[in-house]
Here is the input.
Amino acid sequence: MEHIDFSLVDWSRAQFALTAMYHWLFVPLTLGLSFIVAFMETLYFRTGNPEWKRITKFWMTLFGINFAIGVATGIILEFEFGTNWSNYSWFVGDIFGAPLAIEGIMAFFLESTFIAVMFFGWNKVSKKFHLTSTWLVAIGSNLSALWILVANAWMQYPAGMKFNPDTARNEMVNFWDVLFSPVAINKFLHTVLSAYVLASIFVIGVSAWYLLKNREQLFAKKSIKVAAIFGLAASFLTMVSGDGSARNMAKFQPMKFAAMENLYNGQQNAPLAVMGFLQKNKTETDPKKQDFVFKIEIPNMLSYMAFLDPNAYVPGVFDLVKGDKEHHILSYKERTEKGKIAITSLAAYKNAKKAGNDSLANASLAHFQENYPNFGYGYYANRDVNELIPSVPTTFYSFRIMVFLGLHFIALFLVVLILTNKDKIEQKRFILYTALWTIPLAYIASELGWVVAEVGRQPWVIQDILPTIAAVSQIKPVSVQITFWLFFVLFTGLLIAEIKIMISQIKKGPASEPSQN
Amino acid sequence: MRINLKNIFQFYYLGFRSMTVGKRLWLIIILKLIVMFLILKIFFFPNFLKTNFKTDKDRSNYVIEQLTK
Here is the structure.
């Protein structure tokens, strides 16, 4: 791994990031709007008020547009696994196989079957069956997300697997360890809950537009009420699950945690930088260090946030790179040495097996297994270990912008809920404009959450086991560049189509007369 | 409604016929799937290991060689 074409690695990463981020523009609205529609239809079912049916049908149409344009955009990621990340794809095959197969079956049977009843079944099936179908679409969509998020969580915290040196593949030894790993549970909850927040903001923002235009007042206020309550509940739970994610990060991905907090030197009673501005350190000794030029801190909060103990020690970037015997942290130099032993032992094992030398094979295998937890570090044995530090400013700022936007969303949900209950919301034009312009902010916050999760764990494709430089396929960089731009054009086209169809449908508004059925 | 094949067919047939915005969406879905599976997948995204190696053993040997070189 000494001759690495970084343009290939970087373009492959850029392509995956582009397609994943575009894909994620469609997913959260599907996840959240499906439940909002189900709640609205439940209100129709319980009250029999035809206005709720009219409301349900309108938001269901927007859900359908988003679902149709976004469907299958995630398949592209699977194409990339097979072409651009073939080493990785082979290496993880069995771990990804089961969750993705279950996802496919779930998506096909639950979504595809019941989505037809949801759209075609009005007045053709009973109200109860229609409502059940709407709920099953919501549950099915969210369960589909579960499996892919479990697979992503496994990459951050590879639990429940065993590497088979004969096949070069990871094999699942405990499905439940994979499914219920603390990282998987938090990742799923945090991701889907944040999607509910985004969908609630979408509903409130579009409803606010109607109020600004003096159209559909009853429709808009009822929609705002449902979305604000749903969004508020989802926001608080997003905060709780986010707190859990941070603790997992401190435990299982301490470098990501240190980068997210711009913490270079570990300390006890570590303070949390609520906000701050960074500047590249100008000294030659620490060329990669970022200094705070301004910050507002809460004393002891970082220690508490990470380990529920205000006195706890939180390691910094330098402690992780240079090691800290007092806190039992191996230096990256020691880890790269162990990783190198794992890599050479794996090669020796294969050669010994081929030569029929069982005793050498067994000894090599024992060496390999002993050092496997540091396998990925071996690729940096002759490289600069600073390559193992993710982009600190990107993770630091992304996290803070996401959190501040999250707080803005909570304030918005509270304000619109109070104003709607007092029946004064249509008079507060500033709030209505704020609600409308919060729609793009919700997408920004949602994307930034993924930036923290994925940029923060670089260079790892699988934490500590497989870095990007070993995971990439040896193909021509130019082919990756071509497909990068092809995807850019394709996804931008889909996004424009989605926005255009959505806007035309929103301008058209809900059906004029509520039907009695 | 009694469930039989004719009813199911009628359900989908009438559903598709009465679509308004859905017709545009189906066009987008079909075009998207054609671009993805008949152009991108075939011409730009062959499975690297499946294309270059015949058996799983060859593929695993190649990956181990890549990981240990």
Remarks:
- The longest strand of chain A covers residues 272-280.
- Residues 6-47 of chain A form the longest helix (42 residues).
- The mean pLDDT of chain A is 92.
